[in-house]
């Protein structure tokens, strides 16, 4: 465990060697000042205090030198403390920020299949609690190194002063260190369980908050409260267990220096009687031992902190070692301002080990065309949309854009040409403008045009601060249809060559949806449009229809052709029409 812990520390230190070197330098200055202070105090005892008190010698010529030496050492200590704390604080905070950035960057590059198997709450715990805990050891580490140097320097000084006291002190210190190592090993396993429990509590809390609407609507508040209480109580119990283990060992470790000092004082008094030591020598030794009590505990604290950090690092490492990375090619995005052609050849797909979702799918969409993907629930329409946006890759076969396999495009090329708008868009807790631009720079006229085409101009203008209005987390201050239109504007402002709408206007009134889709079809956009459509009015706006059943493309053609020659399509359109008519009838 210690070897893994030191390897973990080594990786972090190598990333910021200057900050670590500065912190250790400050710590070295501090502990060297402590050693120097012990020598000065011993010398003052022999040259000033005893001569004045025992023999009545004149002190006036000696006091100024003693005071100057004490002030000089105090300044020496202060400089060391300042350098150590500044360097260690910067090292820990910078490493923590770097680790969080690595985690987020790595997760963004992983396939959606990996994310599908993870718990959002647990990933949040890894990025927050575990990333913090994994770097905590860097805070006390420089002081621990300084404390180690202090131990070594003090032992050398004690051995030089008297070998008998040196043996006694060495045995006491080695005993303490052995106990510290044993304690850190015991704590490591217990703290691993604590970190896992923290991830589970975060998972339960995230699900409860994210599903607040469902929980309240079904009256399941007490059930969720009980579930979170159970998880929290288990975390509490395991934290208490870690605390009990830690404090049991700490009580032993804290008692040893005091016992060692009593023994050394007794032994030193005997050595003075035998003429082997002076009173100043014993003062130096006991002063060092009194100062060593905290460094000894600190070294134990560092060893225990290694076990805490290593337990957290194992969870962080599990994420960083995930190798299901999205692979990219070298092809740059096309800058041609015209709609892209998209095709699928022999596409097979399934989610993980689930049943096949798509089987032997062949389709082709011409540049500038508006195509409707139609089919019953579970036919694979949304999956085709996800594959076209390369949010997933086919298990077999290929999706191409203007004849280029999407997998051959470089990182960032697909989002530069293809934009997908889903049924349940995600909005950020910021302004309407920022939700449309997402940090990119767009001309105000372009943003206004995107909002107009998305049918959002009127309601955005009516907001308290217009386009600069903050819309709350996930856009909670807006209706479902308004959120969808903001998301559509977000896609349109980027003027993609392929615009995919996966039931992206389902929460909008049918008349408004028709106006939006008509406007998109007639607008001067450099876009081919693929619409996952359910409403008959939306389907009729498409140049061509691709009909899917059970994960296969059953038919392609105009609406009239499919209505006359494809029974499944005709039944589906009739069902849509009957449902719409039923909803229009007065109750």
List keywords for this structure.
disordered C terminus, 6-stranded mixed β-sheet, elongated, about 575 residues, single chain, alpha/beta
Give structural notes:
- With 587 residues, the protein is of the alpha/beta class.
- The chain contains 20 helices and 10 strands.
- It has helices spanning 2-15, 17-55, 63-108, 112-116, 120-135, 141-161, 163-210, 212-217, 221-273, 279-320, 381-388, 413-417, 432-437, 444-453, 457-461, 480-492, 510-522, 536-540, 559-565, 567-584; strands at residues 342-349, 358-365, 370-374, 396-401, 404-405, 418-421, 498-502, 528-532, 544-549, 552-557.
- A 6-stranded mixed β-sheet has the order 6-7-8-3-9-10, with helices on both faces. Strands 2-1-4-5 form a 4-stranded antiparallel β-sheet, covered by helices on one side.
- It is elongated.
- The termini are far apart.
Q: What structural class should be given to the helix and strand makeup?
A: alpha/beta
Question: Runs with pLDDT <50, length 5+?
Answer: 583-587
Number of continuous helical runs: 20
How much is the radius of gyration in Å? 36 Å
Q: In sequence order, what are the helices and strands, one letter per element?
A: HHHHHHHHHHEEEHEEHEHHHHEHEHEEHH
Estimate what percentage of residues fall within beta strands.
5-15%
How many angstroms does the end-to-end distance come to? 72 Å
How much helical structure, as a percent, in the residues?
A: 55-70%
Could you tell me the number of beta strands? 10
> Which strand order does the major sheet show?
6-7-8-3-9-10
Overall shape:
elongated
Give the overall average pLDDT: 83
Main pleated-sheet profile: 6 strands, mixed
